[in-house]
Amino acid sequence: MRTAQRRAVALAALLVTALAALALPSAVRAATADDPAPVAPPEPFGADCRTSVRGSHVIAYCHNPYPDTDRVRLHTECARWWDVDADAAPVEVAPAQTVRLTDRCWKEVRAVWVTHEKPTAPAGTSTKPPGAVR
Predict the structure, then answer these.
(1) Does a structural domain hold residue 4?
(2) 3-state percent breakdown (helix, strand, coil) of the chain, nearest 5
(3) Residue 121 to residues 47, 72, 73, 74, 126, Cα–Cα distance (Å)
(4) Cβ atoms of residues 81 and 96 within 8 Å
(5) Which of 121, 108, 127 is nearest to 55 (CA)?
(6) Where does the pLDDT of residue 19 fall: very low under 50, low under 70, confident under 90, or very high at 90 and above?
């Protein structure tokens, strides 16, 4: 067989394979059940936090623009191996509230970050506002 004929046969085989691969997903999709119902977007949550490092001091300001309370915690990783890393106690940021979190290392700061979590209601308390009817 000549080279030109071989190329033509190979190109035709490649084209048939590509078309079959493109047609396969639509055949599989047609055989599946109806599309699931659209998922509601998640509720916005989480205070907006800004961190700054000056020397060995760390400051974070967190403002919560959302209606749910956010529990934030400042984490500081110090650069020196002998300098103790710190995880601050969690602080609850109520809606429309701004909090200031501070920490420090003895020497340089390697990394700073803030974590967020939704606070859980203590046992025996209700999450409904006062005066709400059950």
Answers:
(1) no
(2) 20, 35, 45
(3) 19, 16, 18, 22, 7
(4) no
(5) 108
(6) low
What is the three-class DSSP state of 27? helix
> 131: burial class by Cβ within 10 Å (0-12, 13-18, 19+)?
exposed
CATH at residue 82: 2.60.40.10
Averaged pLDDT for residues 103-127 = 82
| 45 exposure class (CB count in 10 Å sphere: 0-12, 13-18, 19+) | middle
User: What is d(CA 2, CA 5) in angstroms, rounded to the nearest whole number?
Assistant: 5
Q: What is the mean pLDDT of the chain?
A: 81
Q: Is residue 76 part of a domain?
A: yes
CA gap 89, 61 in Å, rounded: 15
Q: Is residue 73 part of a domain?
A: yes
Better-predicted residue by pLDDT, 92 or 34: 92
pLDDT in tens, 47-70: 999 999 999 999 999 999 999 999
pLDDT of residue 14: 65
